[in-house]
Design a protein that fits this description.
Its cofactor is Mg(2+). The protein is of the alpha/beta class and 282 residues long. It is built from 13 helices and 9 strands. The protein has one domain: Ribokinase (UDP-N-acetylmuramoyl-L-alanine:D-glutamate ligase, 3-Layer(aba) Sandwich). The structure holds ligand NAX and adenosine-5'-diphosphate. Ligand NAX binds next to helix 3, helix 6 and helix 9.
Length: 282
């Protein structure tokens, strides 16, 4: 079947920008629980927390590997390191499923059993299926290939690269979750039939850590819209497309500020506020 994909636009994204009001406090704006990073990839924890803060969040609780807490705090002292109530979770960036210890497995399982919205990235992608709340997975092509392979759905990296939309849909249907398949054109699909593309305005995003930044933006959006997600789990798909849109625009703004040149992952996170500000003013 030929699918119809719709390019997600600024107007679509603007509808999901949550501007705080007089009655808001940090809890009402949303608290994001973050379990990311590892000894091998500590920076992923820093990047995701940074991006969540830049995307507008009430509070971030970082409860990933304890040794990384100091690094996260050095960049974002706002971060809280104790467990507590959260409205959404960001799990897996910078983690290796093969090196997961018992404690970490328990914490990830706890988050997935909470019924709250979850963004599953990188080293937590294998846990898709045990989720209980509105969930979106954020693989790149290689990660999707591995995920499908583990479920005995053979697909080569070349096949996925040639037809990313088809494979995003297949994964959404097989895994029963929204899928955000990263690339120069990001494909967002879910089992109810939502099909969105977000075309990056440029290609400087192809650099280490920008996926971790996307996870932080999406986590913040999910936490900020926990009420909407409780009413309509399918809203996670629109939030994922909105996060990808903001991410691409932030890369463009960051590059423009550098004479149209290259950007780093932190540059992209830094450029998120003006993008959100402009969308909020639409
Ligand atoms: N500073 C940090 O801490 C960073 C941590 N990162 C984390 O590093 C871990 C490993 O990520 P990787 O994606 O590098 O490793 P993977 O183990 O997923 O990828 C390894 C191989 O997959 C292929 N591959 C990588 N990206 C691809 C893409 N977009 N499309 C198709 N094939 C691709 C490449 O051939 C590569 O050799 C993840 O947990 C990620 O979150 C990365 O985000 C980089 C920055
Ligand atoms: N050629 C490209 N043009 C535009 N955006 C890209 C390109 N390649 C990758 N991206 C985007 O950059 C990000 C890379 O994420 P990911 O592959 O997870 O890298 P990392 O693991 O280093 O963070 C994704 O948001 C993806 O959509």
């Amino acid at each position: 079947m030929t699918e119809t994909w719709r390019e997600w636009a600024a107007e679509d994204t603007a509808a999901w920008i949550r501007v705080p009001g007089a009655g808001d406090d940090k809890y009402a704006r949303g608290v994001l629980g973050v379990i990311t990073g590892s000894h091998d990839y500590p920076g992923a924890a820093v990047l995701g927390v940074e991006a969540a803060n830049r995307a507008g969040i009430g509070m971030v609780r970082y409860t990933g590997p304890r040794a990384l807490g100091a690094l996260v705090l050095a960049r974002r002292p706002e971060t809280v390191l104790v467990t507590g109530r959260v409205q959404a979770w960001l799990l897996g960036s910078g983690m290796d499923a093969g090196k997961r210890n018992f404690l970490l497995q328990g914490e990830l399982s706890h988050a997935l059993a909470s019924g709250q919205p979850v963004v599953l990235d990188a080293g937590a992608l294998d846990l898709v299926g045990v989720h209980t709340g509105p969930t979106v997975i954020t693989p790149h092509a290689r990660e999707l290939q591995r995920l499908l392979d583990a479920r005995e759905i053979p697909a080569s990296l070349e096949e996925i690269r040639e037809a990313p939309g088809e494979w995003a849909v297949r994964a959404a249907n097989e895994l029963g979750t929204a899928v955000l398949l990263k690339g120069a054109v990001t494909h967002i699909a879910d089992p109810t039939g939502a099909r969105y593309t977000v075309t990056a305005p440029g290609h400087w995003l192809a650099t280490a850590g920008t996926g971790d930044v996307l996870g932080g933006i999406l986590g913040a959006f999910a936490a900020g819209h926990a009420d909407a997600l409780a009413l309509e789990a399918g809203a996670i798909t629109a939030l994922a497309a909105s996060a990808a849109f903001v991410h691409g625009q932030a890369a463009a703004v960051a590059s423009l500020a550098r004479g149209g040149g290259p950007v780093t992952a932190l540059d992209v996170a830094d450029a998120v506020p003006p993008v959100i500000g402009e969308l909020a003013a639409m």
